[in-house]
Specification:
mainly alpha; 2 domains; 11 helices; Branched-chain amino acid transporter AzlC; transport; Brnchd-chn_aa_trnsp_permease; transmembrane helix; transmembrane
């Protein structure tokens, strides 16, 4: 909980912003909170709501939201050596609590500290449980106050700050750097495509570039 606590500084405005945007998009409080509690993935939520406002086809909304969340599949795969032998009910809780912040804090700790499986599970859930109440509560407040929050508060700063804080420590190998660079360039180059489909293509291209780099390094080794 101590390791994840600093993320509260960006989780709170992140949640406030989604609550405001959700209500401005025409969702009622129950729908906004359903998004936050069930999807529990800020970037995908913002993406889906924006596409819904743009009247994008449902299949595009779903596909783009899933593409934004493809990183969760990679997070899950990297946690298997550490939590894969946990009982099913524990893995189900980990699956629900697998958000960027809980993953970032936990994987760094797992890789540098030897601890038995029950302690790894406890550590992961602790990192999630200190973040999630602020995410839920901030979204509820944002949905209730809506446009009463002045634009001068600039809540949208929380989005890039959150992901910069998560991505920077992860850029430890050449494949990670290649994937990050390719995703950035591809997303910018394809930004003009409709319904955010450029993001889908950028994500696939970046993953392929990172995987190809890793394979090339393994062959050379």
């Amino acid at each position: 909980m101590r390791g994840a606590a600093p993320f509260i500084l960006v989780i709170a405005p992140f949640g406030l912003l989604f609550g405001v945007i959700g209500t401005e998009a025409g969702l009622n409080i129950a729908q906004v909170m359903g998004f936050t509690v069930l999807v529990i993935a800020g970037a995908a939520q913002f993406t889906a709501v924006q596409l819904m406002v743009d009247n994008a086809p449902t299949v595009i909304v779903l596909a783009t939201a899933l593409a934004v969340n493809l990183r969760m599949a990679m997070y899950s795969a990297s946690l298997v050596p550490h939590l894969g032998r946990a009982p099913l009910w524990q893995r189900a809780l980990v699956a629900y609590g697998l958000v960027d912040q809980s993953y970032a804090v936990s994987i760094l700790e797992f890789e540098r500290t030897a601890m038995p499986l029950p302690e790894r599970f406890a550590f992961f859930m602790g990192s999630f449980l200190v973040i999630s109440p602020f995410w839920y509560a901030a979204t509820l407040v944002g949905a209730q106050v809506g446009t009463a929050i002045p634009d001068s508060f600039a809540l949208d700063f929380a989005i890039p700050i959150t992901f910069l804080a998560l991505i920077a420590p992860a850029l430890r190998t050449l494949p990670h750097i290649v994937a990050a660079l390719v995703s950035t360039l591809a997303a910018l180059a394809l930004a003009g495509l409709p319904y955010g489909t450029g993001l889908l293509l950028a994500a696939v291209t970046a993953m392929a570039a990172g995987a190809a780099t890793e394979l090339a390094m393994e062959r050379r080794a």
